[in-house]
């Protein structure tokens, strides 16, 4: 639980960031938003994959099966495919700006999946348990489990932010070096 | 050593989950830091080459 739940939160939060970057890219054409979207995609895909795998590892002893085509699990798998599509589209064009705009469209369209993931356990009769933590109500789990979960979630979120900033900075430096190399012959 | 019969239930699944997440995180952090280091070294090199190309005399005087 201390790995699966924070990974699920991180995967959803990363997609919100991806959609915001897409919006910034489409409306204001901010170049940094495109670079952030480029780097947020693989991080989100990794978090989603880890969420699905750790959930499967938890499901086998808990439910007796690795996988069911349950609404929560399926919508999370759709999120993973959205991330994969975004990663492929943003790198598919020779012109990076065109790639960023095409990927932004996918990111914005895919936002529909987030409320489906969140409310799937309420809308449909699923094998997956309902949410133990909500923004409005008290958690339905023991406090001795709730606080470690919060610490784990904070740690993973901060690691995710740090990784995103490191990778974005690396891309910026790579592009600056590339533009210097292309500016004029050095010798 | 604790006898395997006394290990927590489903310890294999727990070990697999933690092992997987820690390995993936370690790989991601290491590769990201290495990429940042390589990019910053390349940029420094390009800037130095540009400076040398712009002021060749300065480079010769230093020699």
From TrEMBL, chain B:
Q: Spell out the InterPro entries in the cross-references.
A: Haem_export_protD_CcmD (IPR007078)
Keyword DNA-binding applies: no
Q: Where in the cell is it found?
A: Cell inner membrane
> What keywords are annotated for this sequence in UniProt?
Cell inner membrane, Cell membrane, Cytochrome c-type biogenesis, Membrane, Transmembrane, Transmembrane helix, Transport
Which residue ranges run through the membrane?
12-36
Q: Which family does it belong to?
A: Belongs to the CcmD/CycX/HelD family.
The role this protein plays is: Required for the export of heme to the periplasm for the biogenesis of c-type cytochromes.
The protein in question is named Heme exporter protein D
Provide the species name: Bombella favorum
């Amino acid at each position: 639980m201390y790995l699966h739940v924070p990974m699920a939160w991180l995967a959803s939060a990363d997609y919100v960031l991806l959609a915001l970057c897409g919006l910034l890219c489409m409306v204001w054409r901010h170049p940094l938003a495109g670079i952030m979207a480029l780097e947020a995609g693989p991080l989100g895909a990794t978090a989603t994959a880890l969420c699905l795998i750790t959930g499967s590892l938890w499901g086998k002893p808990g439910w007796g099966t690795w996988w069911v085509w349950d609404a929560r699990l399926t919508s999370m798998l759709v999120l993973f495919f959205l991330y994969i599509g975004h990663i492929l589209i943003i790198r598919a064009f020779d012109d990076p700006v065109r790639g960023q705009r095409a990927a932004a469209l996918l990111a914005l369209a895919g936002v529909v999946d987030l409320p489906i993931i969140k409310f799937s356990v309420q809308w449909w009769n699923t094998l997956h348990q309902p949410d133990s933590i909500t923004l409005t109500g008290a958690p339905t789990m023991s406090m001795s489990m709730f606080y470690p979960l919060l610490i784990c979630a904070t740690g993973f979120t901060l690691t995710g932010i740090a990784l995103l900033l490191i990778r974005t900075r690396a891309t910026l430096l790579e592009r600056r070096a590339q533009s210097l190399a292309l500016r004029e012959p050095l010798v | 050593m604790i006898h395997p019969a006394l290990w927590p239930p489903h310890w294999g699944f727990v070990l697999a989950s933690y092992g997987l997440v820690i390995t993936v995180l370690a790989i991601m952090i290491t590769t990201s830091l290495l990429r940042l280091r390589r990019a910053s070294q390349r940029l420094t090199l390009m800037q130095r080459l540009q400076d040398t190309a712009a002021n060749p005399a300065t480079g010769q005087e230093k020699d």
